[in-house]
Design goal:
By secondary structure, the protein is an alpha/beta fold. Helices cover 40% and strands 16% of the residues. A hairpin with a 5-residue loop joins strand 3 (96-97) and strand 4 (103-106). The protein binds adenosine-5'-triphosphate (ATP) and magnesium ion.
Length: 255
């Protein structure tokens, strides 16, 4: 299964991807694909060293038209097995591991002033996911960039399911409603997890979600320990957030 974790900026996509990865790694071989071109903290939150960006494996970043044109060559270069891309066969410098054995890949980061847009990274994510051959017991979580840029690049085509993270903001609910419509058009499974929920915000959040016909599959409470560990650039520590997520994943038959 390839699950895209998406949603508005700052809702908690990266934090929940790490926590979900940990929960899933108790029974499955988990890989996380970091397809966010701007944030760089995922390796630290996972307790893994930063892997070499995959964009370097395919000869570096190029203009998006060129990348689109090169799709068959890129897919071929990434395919170490004749059936397609096998994550366990990629050169070791492109996959690092967390203490729990979660594999981390990163697509690429925008680091230089004036280097152009991030579209080529989204195209590369789509090529990677679209040609992926997962083996029994393997699952891939894709931590996406904020918003809906990836929608414009059809990255969703190459995944099986989408999990939208919302927080107690109307903007994040609107973004999730758009993602729900895309998932429905593409025939992908779709879930919504509300994050950073407090006693005071839960009711208005649920009411606004209902107004948008958005089904919330579960709520993760605001967890101060999680917030502080992020702030300190540490491997994530969580109390209530982990317990809530575990319950949600069990209810959704994801564990
Ligand atoms: N349940 C939670 N309780 C408290 N703080 C949280 C929770 N979830 C996430 N956060 C905090 O919110 C901040 C943003 O989280 P995170 O980076 O995971 O969001 P994101 O959606 O990945 O952001 P971006 O769109 O920039 O990639 C982090 O500093 C994190 O500590
Ligand atoms: Mg993030």
């Amino acid at each position: 299964m390839r699950v895209m974790v998406c949603g508005k900026g700052g809702t908690g996509k990266t934090a929940l991807t790490v926590l979900m990865g940990r929960i899933l790694s108790e029974n499955l071989k988990v890989y996380i694909v970091d397809s966010d071109e701007s944030n760089i903290l995922l390796p630290a939150f996972l307790g893994a060293s930063p892997p070499k960006p995959l964009v370097e494996f395919v000869g570096g970043k190029r203009e998006e038209e060129e990348f689109e044109r090169m799709e068959p060559d890129i897919a071929k270069a990434l395919s170490m097995a004749k059936e397609g891309v096998r994550l366990d066969l990629l050169p070791p410098e492109y996959v690092s591991f967390s203490p729990e054995g979660i594999g981390l890949l990163t697509i690429g980061k925008v680091r230089e002033y004036g280097e152009g847009c991030a579209c080529p990274f989204n195209i590369l994510t789509r090529i990677l996911l679209g040609n992926l051959v997962l083996r029994e017991g393997e699952i891939v979580l894709v931590d996406t960039d904020a918003g809906v840029e990836h929608v414009g690049r059809r990255v969703e085509d190459a995944c099986d399911s989408m999990l939208a993270v919302v927080d107690p903001t109307l903007e994040s609910l609107e973004a999730a409603a758009l993602l729900r419509d895309i998932a429905s058009t593409l025939g992908k499974r779709f879930w919504v997890v509300a994050n950073k929920v407090t006693e005071e915000t839960e009711k208005p959040l649920m009411e606004e979600a209902a107004r948008l016909n958005l089904k919330i599959d579960g709520a993760v409470r605001f967890d101060e320990r999680l917030q502080i560990s992020c702030l300190k650039r540490e491997p994530l520590k969580a109390d209530t957030a982990m317990a809530d997520l575990r319950r949600i994943m069990r209810n959704l038959n994801l564990t």
